[in-house]
Amino acid sequence: MCGIVGYNGHRRAAPILIDSLKRLEYRGYDSSGIAVYDGKAIEVWKEKGKISELEKILPDMPGTIGIGHTRWATHGRPNKVNAHPHTSGGIAVVHNGIIENYQELRDKLVGSGFVFISETDTEVLAHLVNHYYKNDLIDAVISALNEIKGSYAIAVLCGSQLVAARKDSPLVIGIGNEENFIASDIPAILKYTRKVIFLDDLELASVSPDVVTFFNMKKEPIDKTINQIDWNLEAAERSGYEHFMLKEIHEQPRSLHETLAGRISELEGTISFENLNITEAQVTDIPRISIIACGTSYNAGLLGKYLFEHLSGIHVDVEIASEFRYAHSAPGSLVIVISQSGETADTLAALREAKTFGCRSIAITNVMGSTITREVDSSIYMRSGPEIGVAATKTFISQLGVLYLLALYFGKSKGKISSDRMKRLLVSIKQIPAQITLILNDKEQIKKHAEKIAASNDIFFIGRTFNYPIALEGALKLKEISYIHAEGYAAGELKHGPLALISKNTPVIAIATKGLTYDKVVNNIKEVKAREAPVIAIADEKDNEIERYVDGLIRVPSTDEILSPMLSIVVLQLISYYAAKVRNCPIDQPRNLAKSVTVE
Ligand code: F6R
Predict the structure, then answer these.
(1) Cβ atoms within 10 A of the Cβ of 523, count?
(2) Cβ 505 vs Cβ 452: under 8 Å
(3) How far is the CA of 496 from the centre of ligand 1 (A)?
(4) Which among 2, 158, 359, 585 is annotated as catalytic?
(5) Cβ partners under 8 Å of residue 187, min gap 6
(6) Burial 274-285 (b: 16+ CB within 10 A, else e)
(7) Which protein residue has the closest C-alpha to ligand 1 atom 11?
(8) Annotated catalytic residue 595
(9) N or C: which terminus of the chain has fewer CB atoms within 10 Å of its end residue's CB?
(10) Sign of the Cα pseudo-torsion (561, 549, 302, 295, in order)
(11) Are strands 458-463 and 485-490 parallel, antiparallel or unpaired?
(12) Residue 269 φ/ψ, nearest 5 degrees
């Protein structure tokens, strides 16, 4: 997805813009550009491809104010002309989002004599601001934005004036010492400041070196709060790991520990959340829950369904956010949106739809102050720290951690879990971070299994009940980073169609930890073995039976059946990682994918 940076201060802007853009590379992009004002004119440089290509052509630029952008093509091909910034007269603009009425505006502007050189919707914005500009940039930006339908986060440069604005696309202002910053994502500016102000929808900021002034769309000044970001720069760097993904896989014990910290008392068998505005008494009135999410967060939500239904008896529907908009929500339902970034456009749109039915809402997210957190009744933070690799790993574990706690809290409130079982489960959940570390210590043997299957064209992942969402997540991880076609299936479904695809060339990875459906999964393993598929099983360390049915075995530490998905998924993440490595794939930035998907 596109990235925005802006700088106004006492240092040369260009190196800061380039450095900040590089910190957004993980989000995926196809071209980049910067615009810097040198006291006389705005100089614009852009290039197709990596930021290093842009760096090759950059001259020495002395200006101390500028904007920069990494573009992920939506309107128009990924080339130099379509790259941002776009200019009109003395105005330069960078933009994230989509201008829905751009064709109409473009026709109007062409009629007024403006000449378009790109295929982008953003160029419309540059011409519109120019059209309205009469010595006051804020006035011109407000007038231009009033004509726009769609989503935007923008930074506009005009001489020594720098203005930012947003609607439905994230933007933060970084507060420095005699220098201030604009960024679409916090990691871009973490090296320079940890003080940030989140811009809300339909707000603007005028950014000078000494002061940032905030306005609403009527140009009335507004007060904003400064937030202190508690991540450090190291959290957003690779720290000696070859890839962010591998680093983040290794950070999972810490991430889960942070998710649980201060929220559980295993001695008393209680769970508490800082900001959850739902009392135990109110839980008993929840008729049903809708969990809404996309991708990996959806897979976490699907495990959430099994957990809530098993532990609290409350019926749960899990909805893919982009489909939920067109479904009907039951008034009175509790809506739980799961989003690592808190910015996913589909999830946000579904949340807004659910709210029109009067649903109460909870967000499970990793980003404090993100758009979704500002639109829900309460937010539960995952506390994973920044996740840079496009493939979600540590945030998935922490999403699961929150879901376990919430399902247990609901189960206790509804009197469905005995105090003893609650205490036992809380003791077991607290052991999971250490058990994940044991799996990580054994990664060399997982690597060998991954290397054996890395040349396959198709791989199946199977599991039942609590392990079914993990099969889906294992398949998603593998396909997105290794580009191997992978399918996750409820093991019992194979015989209803996909078994036709099973052969000696389709390895099957079976999640076969001990539990209610263990025997059935073993039968499913026999079914695929009968079709000559090589099978790798993930099984409990104490399982003495399964070895005889499979070709490869990866053992995970023993735990309660409902908790074992948090262990099995770590194995599957490592399999994906090592398979992708053998295949020489760009693991942290898979093709066509972006870290936070802010378009619908
Ligand atoms: C896959 C992945 C995506 C995200 C999805 C939702 O590894 O990361 O599938 O899970 O785009 O993103 P969030 O959680 O930010 O809403």
Answers:
(1) 13
(2) no
(3) 29
(4) 2
(5) 23, 24, 236, 386, 388
(6) eebebeeeebee
(7) 295
(8) yes
(9) C
(10) positive
(11) parallel
(12) 70, 40
pLDDT the model gives residue 544: 94
Residue type, 144: A
Residue 200 has, within 13 A of its CA and on its CB side, a CA count of: 11
8 A C-beta contact, residue 126 and residue 149: no
Q: How far is the CA of 547 from the centre of ligand 1 (A)?
A: 35
Annotate 534-566 with DSSP letters as a single string. -EEEEEETT--SGGGG-SEEEEE----TTTTHH
Tokens (6 digits) for 445: 């043997």
Secondary structure (3-state) at 162: strand
373 vs 341, 344, 531, 553, CA distance in Å?
A: 10, 12, 49, 42
Q: Is the CB of 339 under 6 A from ligand 1?
A: yes
Architecture field, domain 241-437: 3-Layer(aba) Sandwich (3.40)
pLDDT of residue 428: 97
Gap between the Cα atoms of 367 and 385, Å rounded? 8
Domain 442-600 CATH class label: alpha beta
Residues 396/220, Cβ–Cβ less than 8 Å: no
DSSP helix/strand/coil, 257: helix
Within this chain, domains 3-237 and 241-437 share the same CATH topology: no
Cβ–ligand 1 distance for 391 under 6 Å, the answer yes
Task: Say what the pLDDT of residue 73 is.
Answer: 78
Strands (E), 327-377: 334-339, 360-365
The CA 339 to ligand 1 mean position distance, Å, reads: 7
Residue corresponding to tokens 């999971």: 432
**Mean pLDDT by groups of 10 residues along the chain of 600 residues:** 93 97 83 96 94 94 96 80 94 93 95 93 95 96 96 95 93 96 93 93 96 97 91 75 95 95 94 88 91 97 98 95 76 90 93 89 91 93 91 98 97 95 96 97 96 97 98 98 97 94 97 96 97 97 96 97 98 98 92 73
Distance CA 522, CA 539 (A): 11
Q: CB–CB of 26/588 below 8 Å? A: yes
CB atoms < 10 A from the CB of 181, how many?
26
Q: Which CATH superfamily is domain 3-237 in?
A: Aminohydrolase, N-terminal nucleophile (Ntn) domain (3.60.20.10)
Structure tokens at 317: 């529907």
**What is the token pair recorded at 266?**
């295993």
Instruction: Tell which residue, 597, 594, 591, has the closest CA to residue 483.
Output: 591
Would you state the pLDDT for residue 328? 65
For ligand 1, atom 16: residue with the closest CA: 339
Q: Where are the domains of the chain?
A: 3-237, 241-437, 442-600
User: What is the pTM for the complete model shown?
Assistant: 0.82
- Residue 80 · residue 47 · CB < 8 Å: yes
Residue with token string 């100089």: 43
What does the pLDDT read at residue 357? 85
Pocket test for ligand 1, best of 27, 294, 381, 577 (most atoms within 8 A of CB): 294
pLDDT at 562 (0 to 100) = 97
Number of other CB atoms surrounding residue 110 within 10 Å: 12
Give the distance (Å) from ligand 1 centre to CA of residue 417: 32
